[in-house]
Amino acid sequence: MSCVTAGLNGSPESVAAAEWAAREALLRAVPLRLVHADEWPAWATIPAASAQVRDGWAHGLLAEVAAELQQEHPALEISTRLLWGPPATALSIEAADADLLVLGSRGLSGVKGFLIGSVGMATITSTEQPVVLVRAPKQPGEQPPSAPPKPSRDVVVGVDIQHPCDALLAFAFDEAARRDRPLRAVYGWSLPPLARSAPALEEAEREMAPDIARRLSEVLLPWRRRFPSVDVEERSPIGGPAPQLLHAAADAELVVIGRRVRRSPLGTHIGSVAHAVLHHCPAPVAVIAHG
Questions:
Q1: What letters, b where the CB count within 10 A reaches 16 and e where it falls short, cover 150-168?
Q2: CB-based contacts of 38, cutoff 8 Å, min separation 6
Q3: Residues 50-106: pLDDT tens digits?
Q4: Cα(210)–Cα(206) distance, rounded to whole angstroms?
Q5: Is 77 helix (H, G, I), strand (E, B) or coil?
Q6: pTM for the predicted model, two decimal places
């Protein structure tokens, strides 16, 4: 069934994620599904809790958040479900028939960003559906993720002109169109370390930048034609992809990045650029599996 699914564990971040997911479900005209995995460590401490007590707490949490969201969005169809098993596995299975999965993430200490945690990372790398990470406000007076975004905020997408990224661009253009927001497409690039002197940078900007800008335009052209209503700004600055993307995303409404999973004997990784953006971007981040 087409829907937007949000994972709840009782933390402020997961509640913020559910609020974001409710608005996204309305944008897509699909139901919202709130879920809690039985083995997900609860935000509230339940001393010596039996399975029956844990189930009661989980059902109460789901019902409470669903009721609050229903009051705020009367037209939205909302359902709840208690899942069984390890949270990353259960969430991934639940996301299989959803449009996207929305999770909460804590802000890094002293930094407006994400602390993904093992559940979030494992879920991202085990599902092919888009996963959106949302954080809760940490500073007094900070605008919560659930508040209506400012009209000037854009959707930002990190583009890789070296590899196919159709799924990434399809999601980004669709989100910009649904929100009636401009789309900023960013491709950061840099020179080899030995060529990073000031004269080399100047020469690169003179000789390489026009070609890179042209290639970025070529990647985006089919999607511009498919979504003619979306106003697109193309950026291909010199600099590391992660810092350039984070700079562009400072005031974004939504940031869209791709993940290229690399497996090693030490575990599954999502790539350094995606990792940096997930940990340091203050805006909601959508992670799209592609390539």
A1: eeeebbbbbbbbeeebeeb
A2: 54, 55, 58, 82, 83, 84, 85, 90
A3: 677 778 888 999 999 999 999 999 999 999 999 988 888 899 999 999 999 999 986
A4: 7
A5: coil
A6: 0.85
